[in-house]
Amino acid sequence: MRFVSWGIVAACGFLLAGPAAKAAEIRVPDLPSPSYNWTGFYAGIYGGGGYAAWAADYCRNGGCRHSEGQASGFAAGVYGGFNHQFANRFVIGGELEWGKSSSSRDELIFGDRALLSSFGAFGAARLRAGYAFDRLLAYGAVGVGVASIGNGYRHTVQVGCDSVQEMIWDEQVKAGLVVGGGFEYAFTKHFVGRGEYLYADYGGVTLSGRDRSRTEFHNEMHLVRVGASYKF
Fold first, then answer.
1. Neighbouring-strand partners of residue 99
2. Domains in the chain, number
3. Which of 198, 208, 215 is nearest to 95 (CA)?
């Protein structure tokens, strides 16, 4: 009887040990490796809309007026950088760009007076971070940008019997914060297309005239563009 009892215990132990051993072998499978790897250098060109926005406060003889202007134009340029993709599909990188905008605007105030603003050449250095869905990369970007910006105002002064237009103009390179994001798609191993939006805040500038007028400008730019690059 004792031998029968030990036999039953041994059989039960064998039956319980089998499923336990199989359970120990079960593990969560790794995510499949993406077929496209974003690691590498790249260079490309872009084009799109450059939407310049500025706000100004014009004050003269104790009277002030606030004005806001928008100037849409075309923006085009070149860009290049480097990406590194991790095993979990996250991608980080850095990018440089240089371009030119045609945005400019005159805004009439106080009848014979006009505020002037224009955006010229601009560039930026940005850090990027995103997630790769195989050949599709979604990313965000933040960095520092510089731009050649002109601000001024034009008014009419009376010189004797003649009316003469006088203009005060200031053009300088301004620096500011640039943020944005977009999507890239790898059509082939080397050819990559993108669409993105960027916002840049270049701060303000104050102009003073001989007629004791004072104008304070605040300059921003919105970029909506597409690009094509070659991945090395």
1. 77, 122
2. 1
3. 198
Print burial letters for 150-185: b (CB count within 10 Å at least 16), e (below 16).
bbbbbbeeeeeeeeeeeebeeeeebebebebebebe
Give pLDDT tens digits for 120-149.
Answer: 999 999 999 999 999 999 999 999 999 998
Q: State the amino acid at position 6 in one-letter form.
A: W
Q: Distance between CA 124 and CA 147 in Å, rounded?
A: 9
In angstroms, the CA 147 to CA 98 distance is 10
Nearest-angstrom CA–CA distance, 162 and 136: 65
What do you get for the CA distance between the two ends of the chain, in Å? 79
| Long-range contact set of residues 24-31: C-beta below 8 Å, sequence gap at least 24 | 31/88, 31/89
Rounded CA-CA distance 85/39 in Å is 5
Is a pLDDT exceeding 70 seen at residue 8? Answer: no
> What is the domain extent for residue 95?
2-231
Stated pTM of the model: 0.76
CATH number for the domain harbouring residue 200: 2.40.160
